[in-house]
Amino acid sequence: MADRNDRADAETRILSVIREAINLNAMDETERAVQLLTPMLSEFPEEPAVHLYLAWYLRGCCRFEEAIGHARRAVQLLPRSSRASLVLFNTLWRAGYKNDAIEEIRRFVPIRRSERYTSNYVDILKKWEAGDLGEERDTSLTDDTVKRLLQ
Is domain 2-149 classified as CATH 1.25.40.10? Predict the structure, then answer.
């Protein structure tokens, strides 16, 4: 019983910190959101949500290498998560690692549970393979999707 209570307390604490980080980000205080989330890693190193939000906010601060590391960790912890895949794809793409971003689409499409959030992945992949993928216009939909998912 104590184990279950400890887990519930940890989840409550994690969600509380994430909510506060979301609010800070909404007020354009993304760096403060990063500062709030970073210490959570020492206490909850295997918590995918902490890695996920930290990756997205680090990306917003143009700290791409750190963001990529956290996004990759979120994908390792939750390989079938649309959120994790989208954060990794968008972070890699924005950092200029377009080949790696496309590889994330190739990894994720066969194992995804639904197309709800990643329906444009196949279109992006087709355009890439045809050499017809523009810079931001063709991937902005995935960026908007992540923003909605992480609010």
Answer: yes
Which tokens go with 44? 């909850």
Burial of 146 (0-12, 13-18, 19+ CB in 10 A): buried
DSSP code of residue 136: S
**Whole-prediction pTM value?**
0.87
Side-chain-side CA neighbours of 115 within 13 Å: the count stands at 5
Question: How many alpha carbons fall within 13 Å on the CB side of residue 24?
Answer: 19
Task: State the Cα angle at 17 between 40 and 104, rounded to 5°.
Answer: 70
Write down the domain spans for the chain: 2-149
HSE-up of 107 (CA within 13 Å, CB side)? 19
Does 14 have pLDDT greater than 60? yes
The DSSP secondary-structure symbol of 133 reads -
pLDDT tens digits, one per residue of 82-138: 999 999 999 999 999 999 999 999 999 999 888 887 888 888 888 888 887 665 555
Judge whether residue 1 has pLDDT over 60: no
**Average model confidence (pLDDT) across the chain:** 89
Alpha carbon distance 13, 37 (integer Å): 11
